[in-house]
Write a structure and sequence with these properties.
The protein is of the alpha+beta class and 175 residues long. Strand 10 and strand 11 form a beta hairpin. The relative contact order is 0.11.
Amino acid sequence: MTGRNLGRLLLAAAFCAGICAANSAAAQQVGVTGAVNPASKAVLGGNVRVLDLGAAIIHDEHLQTSASGSLQVVFLDKTTLSLGPSSEVTVDSFVYDPQRQSGKMALSLGRGVMRVVGVNVTHTGGATVTTPLATIGIRGGVATISHDRRSGTHAVNGTGTITVASRGPGGGRKP
């Protein structure tokens, strides 16, 4: 191989590495599915995929379960998120530092029911769940949160501490 061809090959490899790094940053994996009971899916940037056991969960994904479905997500710190039937949750943020065993999590529950069993992230920086009507902070332990248009938002503290703040009528948004 000539020096000129080697130079071109190295330039092409550097270009590909840059694209791969950009794509991996945009598609940051935050966990995996630990259980999937029929027809759960994930939506990211208009792309829809059916979730299987062990599927990667990506930052900013919108998770949906069918009327008969359920889903469990195991995050990188081992915190679990369980979704009941007809539920929709978006993983807004998940940051975890395994060296310090600390981080933060933010989820949005559009409808349905979810249960968070916290590990490192909820014990250090905490987790926040936003619904159309409330913002719920989870510190440690276990919390079950539900939301639907008819009955509103409900939060149940299993262990640890939760805080609930109203977002006002219409979720704090102007009509």
